[in-house]
């Protein structure tokens, strides 16, 4: 048995098409087509009390909430947690980039918002999650054409095999023009669901 | 002056995305930073942009903001004395 066969998916969470799932169980459903309203309702329904949530851009809200729902069940340490983050998406931070571009388009009405500008990178969402859950480990954000289980699998294995982290929070978090999709999963050294490309694709597609 | 203070409170809530905070909850002399509304450094930059955009006041030294943004009362007095629009 190879060492990478000893890694497991201990938990997974998705937010897409008005639904929040944790480990395959539907936790919340809402047909509100406005993302801002939808994500606010999900957040409040989950008992969120983190004031900074409302200051985040759409991508960060999506990533933060999916991570929060997943990690709240993991009995994390209140001081520090050795969890790396490997995220990916297709749209990078385009939604926020466009908002920033709009604010600097007109020289006679040139008022770029600092609060918007700070989110013009996709990996800022990783920072928000790391601050909340006290994660000080490795992190990466990849831009892929589509969900790429092979690359996520290889990167998570590499981090664990090289003892860069105890666990890896992986997945896909994409937001662009009111289409949104988050699928995150936690890879650990203990569990029952094998961390394999086939298993990742199965969880992502069901 | 009361209308300006009311306007400032509404703008602060809207522009700084202060969810679950109402105008009535912001006292004229409540500190905006620290123990008050708990605003952060990015919020301070947003307030500087707001002064420029809404009242035509350009702060050349961001450190000035520390005194000006002490409370809604202090902000309103500063705006009333320095506004160009």
Sequence-ordered SSE layout with sheet pairings:
The complex is a heterodimer of chains A (206) and B (85).
Chain A: E1 8-16, E2 19-22, E3 25-29, H1 35-45, H2 58-71, E4 83-89, H3 94-103, H4 114-117, H5 124-133, E5 139-143, H6 149-161, E6 167-176, E7 179-188, H7 197-205
Parallel strand pairs in A: 4-5, 4-6
Antiparallel strand pairs in A: 1-2, 1-7, 2-3, 6-7
Helix pairs in contact in A: 1-2, 2-5
Chain B: H1 2-15, H2 41-55, H3 64-68, H4 72-82
Give a verbal description of the structure.
- The complex is a heterodimer of chains A (206) and B (85).
- Chain A is an alpha/beta fold.
- Chain A has a single domain (3-92, 121-205), classed as Peroxisomal Thiolase, Chain A, domain 1.
- Chain A has helices spanning 35-45, 58-71, 94-103, 114-117, 124-133, 149-161, 197-205; strands spanning 8-16, 19-22, 25-29, 83-89, 139-143, 167-176, 179-188.
- A 7-stranded mixed sheet of chain A has the order 3-2-1-7-6-4-5, with helices on both faces.
- In chain A, a hairpin with a 2-residue loop joins strand 6 and strand 7.
- Chain B has 85 residues and is mostly helical.
- Chain B has one domain: ACP-like (Non-ribosomal Peptide Synthetase Peptidyl Carrier Protein, Chain A, Orthogonal Bundle).
- Chain B is built from 4 helices and no strands.
- Chain B has helices spanning 2-15, 41-55, 64-68, 72-82.
- In chain B, helix 1 packs across helix 4.
- The model of chain B has no long low-confidence stretch (mean pLDDT 92).
- Chains A and B meet through loops of A and helix 2 of B.
- What's the helix-strand series of chain A? EEEHHEHHHEHEEH
What share of the residues of chain A lie within helices?
25-40%
Number of DSSP helical runs of chain A:
7
Oligomeric composition of the shown chains? heterodimer
Query: What is the CATH fold-level name of chain B?
Result: Non-ribosomal Peptide Synthetase Peptidyl Carrier Protein, Chain A
Number of domains of chain A: 1
Low-confidence stretches of chain B: none
Overall mean pLDDT of chain B = 92
- CATH class call of chain A: Alpha Beta
Largest interface: A-B, 11 and 13 residues
Amino-to-carboxy terminus distance of chain B = 15 Å
Quickly count the domains of chain B: 1
User: Which structural category fits the helices and strands of chain B?
Assistant: mainly alpha
């Amino acid at each position: 048995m190879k060492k990478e066969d000893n890694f497991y998916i201990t938990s997974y969470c998705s937010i897409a098409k008005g639904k929040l799932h944790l480990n395959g169980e539907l936790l919340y459903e809402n047909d509100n087509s406005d993302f801002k309203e939808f994500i606010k309702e999900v957040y409040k329904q989950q008992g969120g009390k983190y004031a900074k949530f409302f200051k985040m851009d759409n991508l960060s809200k999506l990533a933060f909430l999916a991570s929060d729902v997943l990690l709240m069940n993991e009995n994390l340490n209140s001081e520090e947690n050795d969890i790396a983050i490997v995220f990916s998406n297709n749209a990078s931070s385009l939604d926020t980039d466009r908002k920033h571009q709009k604010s600097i388009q007109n020289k006679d009405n040139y008022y770029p918002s600092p609060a918007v500008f700070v989110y013009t990178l996709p990996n800022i969402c990783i920072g928000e999650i790391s601050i909340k859950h006290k994660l000080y480990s490795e992190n990466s954000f990849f831009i892929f054409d589509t969900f790429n289980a092979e690359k996520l699998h290889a990167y998570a294995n590499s981090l664990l095999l090289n003892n860069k982290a105890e666990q890896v929070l992986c997945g896909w978090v994409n937001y662009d023009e009111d289409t949104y999709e988050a699928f995150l999963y936690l890879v650990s050294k203990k569990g029952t669901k094998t961390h394999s490309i086939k298993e990742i694709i199965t969880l992502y597609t069901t | 002056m009361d209308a300006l203070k009311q306007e400032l409170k509404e703008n602060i809530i809207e522009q700084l995305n202060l969810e679950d905070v109402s105008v009535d909850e912001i006292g004229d002399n409540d500190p905006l930073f620290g123990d008050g509304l708990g605003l952060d450094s990015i919020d301070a930059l947003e307030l500087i942009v707001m002064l420029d955009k809404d009242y035509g006041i350009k702060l050349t030294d961001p450190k000035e903001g520390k005194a000006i943004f002490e409370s809604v009362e202090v902000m309103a007095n500063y705006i009333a004395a320095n506004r160009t629009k």
